[in-house]
Amino acid sequence: MEFGTHVILIALGVLIIVAILFDGVRRVRSSRHDRIRMSRRKQPIFDDADSDDFPSELPNGGARVIGRREDEDVEEVHAAILQAAEKKKPKLNIPSREALNSQQPAVEQSEEPEQQLEPEQENEAVESVAEPQQNSLGLDEPVPVLMNTIDQLEPESEQPETPVTSPQSRDTAGSDGKMADPGAVIVMHLRAPQDKPFCGERLLDGLMAANMRFGSMKIFHRHTESDGSGPVMFSMANSVEPGTFDLNTMGTITTPGVSFFIALDQVSNPSEAFGLMLESIGEVMKRVGGELKDDTRSAVTKQTVDHYWQRVREFERRALSESY
User: Fold this and answer.
1) What stretches of 199-241 show up as alpha helix (H) in DSSP?
2) CB–CB of 237/189 below 8 Å?
3) Cβ atoms 196, 204 nearer than 8 A
């Protein structure tokens, strides 16, 4: 029993010593932590407290402050700068009212000869100004003449003009009393591979499948009706001079290419007519192949077709606005 009490007392003493040591260590750490917190609070958040009012505009940080001026010094410097600027400001020499009055008679006298010359030179001046505007832009010529160089396969060929000068187009232009717009004509060329011209018989099969009929000017036309009746919407001409076809020899001829063209101002529905022309070209290409080119002899791409559609829609909008 006595041995057990002695052991308990020793254990309690050890526990007390451990508790005292633990409390001492805790107090030391707590005081050290408080000192660290106090030292941090004494330091400013930013190195330069005044930098909030004037933020840095340099990419690599703020500029070093060399010195500061008092408000009174700043006002003195500002006043000195204003005085120096006033001294350097150029002075305008404004003539007095008496000087202006004395110069008025001279001005009136100098103007009188000019007024006397105006009636004599008025007609000549008007004529000299109007003469440059008299230059012809070629708009008075029929559309076929303007389209000669567009539809030619060879530079000397002039026959593609014939489909545009069909009797129906001439009657339409004459009845309206307006010249056709050259920009309203869309031309697309179907070219055969080199040394492999189109066969006339296959070409004729493609044209019949596209409901194109041989007609006026000895070329093929697509009418509003599939049976060949109604107004002409678009036409196709031969690329070889004179640009015409002969049905009697159609099965034996060959041609290096053909040209499709449409006059937007000669059809009642340009969008429908242009869409049918694209379909007809597709039908012909199924039979004879070839490469489709635009009016500049460049290969036709999707962007080219989109550009043509944009031209058609712009023409329709312009025609609609002019009708009102």
Assistant:
1) 200-209
2) no
3) no
The number of beta carbons lying within 10 Å of the beta carbon of residue 141 is 13
Q: The whole model's pTM is what?
A: 0.46
Contact 242, 255 (CB under 8 A): no
Tell me which H or E stretch contains 166: none
Q: Which helix (H) or strand (E) holds 23?
A: helix 2-42
Digit-coded pLDDT (tens) for 222-246: 999 888 889 999 999 999 888 999 9
Report residue 216 CA to chain centroid gap: 41
User: Which fold is adopted by the domain 143-323?
Assistant: Cell Division Protein Zipa; Chain: A, (3.30.1400)
Q: Domain residues of the chain, as ranges? A: 143-323
- For 268-324, the pLDDT digits (tens) are 999 999 999 999 999 999 999 999 999 888 999 999 999 999 999 999 999 888 876
How far apart are the C-alpha atoms of 69 and 85, rounded to whole Å? 22
CA 186 to chain centre: 22
Tell me the three state secondary structure of residue 268: coil
